[in-house]
Amino acid sequence: MKIAVLPGDGIGTEIVAEAIRVLDALDLSFEMETALVGGAAYEAHGHPLPEATLKLAKEADAVLFGAVGDWKYDKLDRPLRPEQAILGLRKNLGLFANFRPAICYEQLVGASSLKPELIAGLDILIIRELTGDIYFGQPRGRRTAVDGHFPGAEEAFDTMRYSRPEVERIARVAFEAARKRSKRVTSVDKANVLETFQFWKDIVTEVHKDYPDIELDHMYVDNAAMQLVKAPKKFDVIVTGNMFGDILSDEAAMLTGSIGMLPSASLNSSNQGLYEPSHGSAPDIAGKGVANPLATILSAAMMLRFSLNQAEAADRIESAVKHVLASGLRTGDIWSEGTKRVGTREMGDAVVAAITKKTITG
Ligand code: IPM
Ligand code: MG
């Protein structure tokens, strides 16, 4: 089993280091190889996704990714910005299915900005299509308008598009995932305005015929954004396009009050996957040793489960994280009165200890 380790920028290096220590503590045999990505790769090689990094990622069974980005790269031409590395990996590896769970840990109920009763026990799964939609649709660019409200003016444009197979496959992923949960899927669209999303809705409805055991409903994205803060527990699996999924997954993550806790997985059709925390590179706290490594550690658990066929090891990590939370340790982002504030390394130590002392049984 080969893991490509791409720590990236900002807090990426610190949090990935802890995830690796946790993986090492499992006593399984992985081959791990590290490469530069994002701003770090741009500094060293002049490109955020160098050929060698892409090759490593393609050859590996899984990619463990930290985070990329820093404000200092905002003025670079778009193809050289750190974010292009993650988009390039998604595209080149065909990582079309993005799993973003939003789980409210019992001990962290108080960290949410919503009332505890609204989010206690929250466990939703956003499945975001990741290689289509307006993110990748061509044509895009700038030009002089020939029509519209201001012919002759400068304009910019992107293209929202989905093909039938793209929608079919992500719908299947969602229905299959729902089968292992509470058998409910909400498909989020904007069919009242957009042709692309009327098409999306029609196809999801068709594919649903193969899954009579699953309950499907459809919701417009604006309403979904509202329902997520009004009554989030009404959702179970949400499936949506790339753009809406980007926005709703941040909203859902923040419902739990602790984006520092949430892992994510992006899979292709052969279960090769990229695993990363749902949060970004947080340059403001980089290098200070205070970042929460748990989202990355939990991403490593998802990696074991989805791409490396090691469900038991994944359970061990997840149990260890719960144990550490129950013992009262908190990084700054999830700290509250009466708990013990620790840094990145101490949090990693505690998870490793929980795994190796075998105080935890899967
Ligand atoms: C995410 C991020 C990325 C996205 C950026 C960094 C390109 O926001 O993974 O949600 O928009 O998909
Ligand atoms: Mg995002």
From TrEMBL:
Pfam families in alphabetical order: Iso_dh
EC number: 1.1.1.85
PROSITE patterns to which the protein is assigned, alphabetical: IDH_IMDH
Amino acids binding Mg(2+): 222, 246, 250
Gene Ontology terms describing biological process: L-leucine biosynthetic process
Gene Ontology cellular component annotations, sorted alphabetically: cytosol
Reactions it catalyzes: (2R,3S)-3-isopropylmalate + NAD(+) = 4-methyl-2-oxopentanoate + CO2 + NADH
Compartment list: Cytoplasm
InterPro entries: IsoCit/isopropylmalate_DH_CS, IsoPropMal-DH-like_dom, Isopropylmalate_DH
Ranges where the Isopropylmalate dehydrogenase-like domain occurs: 2-351
Sequence positions that bind substrate: 90, 100, 128, 222
Site (Important for catalysis): 135, 190
Cofactor, free-text remark: Binds 1 Mg(2+) or Mn(2+) ion per subunit.
Entry keywords, A to Z: Amino-acid biosynthesis, Branched-chain amino acid biosynthesis, Cytoplasm, Leucine biosynthesis, Magnesium, Manganese, Metal-binding, NAD, Oxidoreductase
Cofactor(s) for this UniProt protein: Mg(2+); Mn(2+)
Subunit structure: Homodimer.
Stated name of the protein: 3-isopropylmalate dehydrogenase
Source organism of this protein record: Variovorax beijingensis
